[in-house]
Write a structure and sequence with these properties.
The complex is a heterodimer of chains A (388) and B (219). With 388 residues, chain A is mostly beta strands. Helix content of chain A is 13%, strand content 34%. Chain A contains 3 helices and 25 strands. Chain A has a 5-stranded mixed β-sheet with strand order 2-9-8-4-5, with no helix packed on it. In chain A, strands 12, 13, 15, 16 and 17 form a 5-stranded antiparallel β-sheet that branches. In chain A, a hairpin with a 4-residue loop joins strand 10 and strand 11. Chain B has 219 residues and is mainly α. Chain B is globular, with a radius of gyration of 18 Å. Chain B contains 6 helices and no strands. The chains are: A mainly beta (388), B mainly alpha (219). The interface between A and B is large, with 36 and 40 residues.
Amino acid sequence: MISFWCRVLLLHQIFTSPACSAVVSPQDPVLLVGSSLTATCTLSPGLQLHTGFLYWTFNGNRLPSSVYHVQGPGALSVTLHNLNGSRQQSGDNLVCHGRKGEVLGGSCLYVGMPPQRPVNLTCWSHNTKDLTCRWSPGGPGEGFIRTRYTLKYKLRWFGQETVCTDYNRGINTCYIPSGLAVFTPYEIWVEATNQLGSASSRVVTLDIIDVVTTDPPPDVQVNRVGILGDQLTVRWRSPPALRDFLFRAKYQIRYRLENSADWKVVENVGNQTSCRLAGLRPGTVYFVQVRCNPVGIYGSRKPGIWSDWSPPMAASTPQSERLQTGSCDAKSGSQTAALRRELKQFLGWVRKHASGCGSVSIKLYDQWRAWLQKSHKTRNQILPGDKS
Amino acid sequence: MSRGKAVCCAQLTLLLAAVVGCVQVPDLSLTLTSERTTIERTYELTKYLEHQLKDIKDTYLSYLGPPFSDPDFSPPRPNSSSLSVPSAATRVELWRGLENGARLAQNQRAYRVLLCAMRELARSTLCPYLQSSLLHFCSGLNGLLGSITGLMRSLGYTPPQLGDVPLPLPGDGQPLLTERPASNEFSRKVEGFWVLRELQSWLWRSAKDFNRLKKRLKA
């Protein structure tokens, strides 16, 4: 590590280095992708430097002298052809250097494309209180230079246009917190603007009540159904914010095994706030989630928007000794294990005390069990599948 | 907010709370022990900001793009005549001989100017994530400025106000940075580069200043 005093002296040297000694023009040009540019580095009058010693870099890369042109005793130009989109949104750095590599001057280039019309404008309201809208950029070239998106809206039959101001909820998202009317359609659109042009999305017309979503159902409880190994009951409450308006709301349940990523969805739960899951595996932990769609709220005829899923609740089905329908890895319960031990001891005694029974062993019992399981499976294939 | 950023936020909040809590003790008969504790905590805040600045500087220089992000790049310092950043660099004998009040005043003035410059840097940054990091850093810098100002008051010194005569500068005496924004983007980038460089120097120097202060107060 450099000692303290060395660094003090180093800093002193840095602060006495020469100032910027040339002007590069044009400054801050904005260009279309594929266009060309000629820039000139003009040395300050007092600077004793030959143009033959100057060179250019573009984003740190030295440009070949074949594209340089001497414009006069103190001016050197460079021509760039077929420019690509800017490497960084702060602008490409075109720098004029002296013989020892010192920076004499520079200019930032902004190379991009005019925006195309934003697409996929989608909006949703949380409990009819607010509106969040999201869109996608219309084209790939808009990211090279700064492109501003402005969401605007107005009531369809009243001309007052309002600009959305909160763009902090996510990329290409705007949030309108309040002041929205229901039962009257809004016209909503997005305008994209950058230094090369502007474009406007198609206007979306919607009524707030047709794009309502709500909170996930609270207080989800998952319980066993007595000792039934293949069932669980799920209960929940209606989302409280819209509780008085959810006459035709729909619910969905999804569940999965603890160590599986595959969810099974129960689609047609309807308007009730409880459901019994059947056809489950005994002695197994399940994760369960519920969500709500406030369809039909305030008389809306649209499909509605599903809420997020509730936090997962875990529950386990009771252990069952019966061989299960469709099960291919029936686990031995503790009773079966005890029975097997006893049988082993008995067969050992039989081999000792009963002549002609030398080949009887626990292996024969295991073979019998395997045969039994196989014959059950064959019979069960013709039975109906899961009730879910 | 990422987990790393949340941890950093929590650490900064704790440090700031500790420093501000120390400085805001209402008892007028502060003992030197209390002031040494404040100095120690200000020192720690300085080291923390120095560490944070390393990450932000790398990100900011990437945002500016090459050659600014190249390791050996050093553009000339901007030339202006307006409000300037006093240099952290100083002659050894001058630095050692600084009286406590003057030492603190130099730090206080530097961070006042640098905080303004950093805020302007943040404001003009187009990348939202980087802007948010810069603003977060500014709040830490503001805390440092507050603790230095508070320390000056508790030791009986009057913090310098805006408009005071600038401190002597090394070299040709030209001021380093201007409050007036540069007229083109390349010049703004060079200015931004120098703001971060200057801030790095000051944070590194302040750690030495506070160590010296602590030793002097012990004596």
